[in-house]
Amino acid sequence: MPPNATSPDASTALPMPKDLSELFVPSMRGHLKSAFKSVMGNPTLAMINMAGGVPHPSTFPITHLRATVKSPSSHSAPHSRESTLDLAKSCRSQSTESLDELLQYGDGCGIDSYCAFLRKYTQRVHRPRYANWGVIASCGNTDAIGKTVSLFCEPGDSILVDRWTFPGALSSLASAKVLPAPVPMDDEGMIPEALDSICQTWSGSTPPRAIYLVPTGQNPTGTTMTLARRKAIYLVAQKRNLAIIEDDPYYFLQLPSAPLPSHSLRGAEHSDQVQDLVPSLLSLDTDGRVIRLDSFSKILAPNLRCGWITAPTYILDKIQILNESTILQPSGLSQGLISKLLNDAWGFDGWDAHLRELRAVYTLRRNLFIQAVDRHLAGLVEYTVPTAGMFLWMKINLGSAAADPTAMPRLLGSMKKCGVMMAPDMPFSSSAMEPAAADRYLRAAFALVDIDMFEPALKRLAQAITSVRDARSSATHLNAN
Ligand SMILES: Cc1ncc(COP(=O)(O)O)c(C=O)c1O
């Protein structure tokens, strides 16, 4: 059991989670243990432990690590003070392990101080409504998706997913030979009635046991489920006894909704406390059927390769075993740096301030991008203003060229020639069916390029769309003659 797990504590009066282990694939049921550990058991302190192939820390050449970090409000106050994080060879800091401990082999749960911060933060933000939950370290959500899916699906099984979804999840399903069952979406994400109807009319051999979804700033559609939508999806999951894999890397990037303030673009005028974010599915979960995946990729840096999974501890026990047969745990250096930053340098207040800053940065980018889209692409695209994340999902108006199945490939070719790249829709499709040419999308990410590039990028896109529309209409014209 992860060391940070809550014990069944009568004083909190929280119910125990339901036992959903019947949803596990047969190989994940029962008590799993690594073969080595089940033979060795847990060494006591009195034992002279010569069992493991563990190097002596005196052989570790890294003896000190120093990182300089920005203040959490460095975007709004560029001259605010930086701080220094020091990890020393053999002495623990305030609350973080020594370098020797961070660099040594560890179990499949993760570094204690890293998980302890994330458990406390999860309690503060999501307030799980059952006892015996915990967190476990992951190497980010891509890794966590594969592991959680493998608890509920084996080759040939299906899993319910958004009609458009994260390609990393689709490749993870493909390599596990798990079939995506697409659920229609609208402006608020997965449609609960459609989800229920798919379950009701399921005709395949094994009915799905889990839903995979991205509730906030969905990739690629940018949709964010309202509270009412989240509750409705949760009710269907209860009715149909489904586990929910809540992949939520954009949760902390919730942005104020339209109308957009054209005069003041910082978005700071809307109330922006962690408590004001749309509640997660985890926070609505009374049964313990949500496995929540969080990642530091979009809120610290992607190649730290660190995230965390929150779930009832009996589910985390399985993920611990899966970690121990694959990654063991994310790099101790990454976990140690994050732990030191969050526990010792920033604390809850600094972390909240950092996340608020990120929301202001992305609000500004989203607003400027949409203004530029309206200037250059009026009549050429349709979109819904995203209220989280970093994506604008644009339905392309190909005019009379929409009847032509080659229009989309021609558009991509034309975009290349014009010198602009955005993601086409098909890699996000969970359905094997090619959409009608009149129903095609591009995903623009407004997170990375310089804001100065928004205008030229959208001018080029307008040129590319217009050239495809014009080419088609002149072809039609020639045929008519
Ligand atoms: C919905 C979704 N899940 C997961 C990931 C990958 O996250 P990580 O870097 O934590 O593996 C992404 C990244 O684009 C994403 O959009």
Automatic annotation (TrEMBL):
Similarity comment: family membership: Belongs to the class-I pyridoxal-phosphate-dependent aminotransferase family.
Recorded GO MF terms: pyridoxal phosphate binding; transaminase activity
Ranges for domain Aminotransferase class I/classII large: 97-399
Co-factor requirement: pyridoxal 5'-phosphate
Organism, as annotated: Coemansia spiralis
InterPro entries named in the record: Aminotransferase_I/II_large (IPR004839), Class-I_PLP-dep_aminotransf (IPR050859), PyrdxlP-dep_Trfase (IPR015424), PyrdxlP-dep_Trfase_major (IPR015421)
Organism phylogeny: Eukaryota, Fungi, Fungi incertae sedis, Zoopagomycota, Kickxellomycotina
Sorted UniProt keywords: Aminotransferase, Pyridoxal phosphate, Transferase
Designated name of the protein: Aminotransferase class I/classII large domain-containing protein
Gene3D superfamilies listed in its UniProt record: Type I PLP-dependent aspartate aminotransferase-like (Major domain) (3.40.640.10)
Protein origin, superkingdom: Eukaryota
Listed GO biological process terms: alpha-amino acid metabolic process
